[in-house]
């Protein structure tokens, strides 16, 4: 579904992504893991067209590189950005509706889709009229994922959904990713929390200093000594 070949991104003299190649097949959950500054967010921004890059980014055989973010979203690639970025002055329901903005959906469909999100995140249902800006970090993360799902993505990209959240909330978020996965949604999961990411993903890529160091099935990466030592803390 997504095929990136020899991607390069520079910020002035900083060569942030170096010859990265990565694939995500239909229905797969693929994780891109790596520590701070490895170049993960830069890779995501290149896919979504928010920064310019060199190399090929094909989506169902169509070249994305050079196209506008708006076009890319219309094709079904939806990203949940690092740090959530919900609309603070809008309510939960209004935020969810913003997610469906680029679709032509009837009121009945929208109600059904909101109910689906509320089914995934009952906490959001309890707070449907609350301003997003007054919710906890975990609730905002749930809302950001819910808003992305309202766009009916074909490829969902989650940029560090666990960032800044308490372990118990992280567990909840990953449980939801598992449920979404069961429904067959193709997902690219960017994470620093390698152990959580590899517990849900089918395959993983380990990024260091702008390059992919290893890639393998999540199972093999979890049991590989150098990955265990550097990323899994044992
Ligand atoms: P984190 O997990 O901390 O977000 P990351 O793996 O997502 O890290 P990036 O944010 O992609 O890493 O950053 C990769 C490198 O590019 C870093 O050295 C960073 O300082 C640099 N960088 C990122 N954005 C910019 C920018 N707008 N201008 C200059 N350098 C940047």
Automatic annotation (TrEMBL):
Stored SMART domains: AAA
Pfam families: ABC_tran
Transport listed as a keyword: yes
GO molecular function: ATP binding
Listed InterPro entries: AAA+_ATPase (IPR003593), ABC_branched_ATPase_LivF/BraG (IPR030660), ABC_transporter-like_ATP-bd (IPR003439), ABC_transporter-like_CS (IPR017871), BCAA_Transport_ATP-bd_LivF (IPR052156), P-loop_NTPase (IPR027417)
Domain ABC transporter: 2-234
Keywords tagged on the record: Amino-acid transport, ATP-binding, Nucleotide-binding, Transport
Membership in a protein family: Belongs to the ABC transporter superfamily.
Protein name: ATP-binding cassette domain-containing protein
Organism: Paenibacillus germinis
